[in-house]
Amino acid sequence: MKNLLRKLFSPFLNKLESGTEPYLYKPSHRFILLVMGVLFSALGIAVLWFAVGQDPTYFLPVVVFGGAGFFSLLVALVGTERAVATIWGSKK
After folding, report:
1. SS3 state of residue 90
2. Domain boundaries defined on the chain
């Protein structure tokens, strides 16, 4: 399943995983990225819940927070160590 997701989202992941420069990876970075992804996704779902039937401009936060949450979860769950380090900007 992980390989299928990596292949499906390879355009996003390849940009984060490219490069040959050294990077600093800590397992806590992946955990924090996972937690932030869950929080952003929950916020996007909560805004969607309250925005149904309202003005269409309320869906902008749904797209922003939902997209940030999805991207964070994607990198945290199927990204390599280099992708996680790139998100954090960790360099040796």
Report:
1. coil
2. 2-11+23-88
